[in-house]
Amino acid sequence: MPGTVFKKIELVGTSPNSLSEAIANAVAKASESVRGMSWFDVVQQSGSIADGKVHEYQVTIRVGFRVE
User: Fold this and answer.
1) How far apart are alpha carbons 14 and 47 in whole angstroms?
2) pLDDT (tens digit per residue) in 3-17
3) Nearest-CA neighbor of 63 among 42, 43, 39, 44?
């Protein structure tokens, strides 16, 4: 049967430094158990504040991976 099938999962990555690092952290952790990841979409960006300063960046992503 020709064609490729993909599945999407939703992840939330965090970082004390940046949104980019939060994305990288989520992808790196998922790669420990998910094979065939191909792409991601950013769904939401958010963060937390403590003592009037940015405390943590949070990003929700959808990751697509090939179904074997």
Assistant:
1) 8
2) 889 999 999 999 999
3) 39
In order of 4, 31, 33, the CA distances from 28 in angstroms are 24, 5, 10
CA angle 9, 43, 52 (to 5 degrees): 120
pTM: 0.88
Please determine, for residue 51, whether its predicted confidence score (pLDDT) is greater than 70: yes
Return the residue matching tokens 């989520």. Answer: 26
C-alpha span between 50 and 26 (Å, rounded): 23
CA distance 63 to 25: 13
User: Could you report the per-residue pLDDT of 16-36, keeping only the tens digit for each?
Assistant: 999 999 999 999 999 999 999
User: Rounded CA gap, 67 and 13, in Å?
Assistant: 23
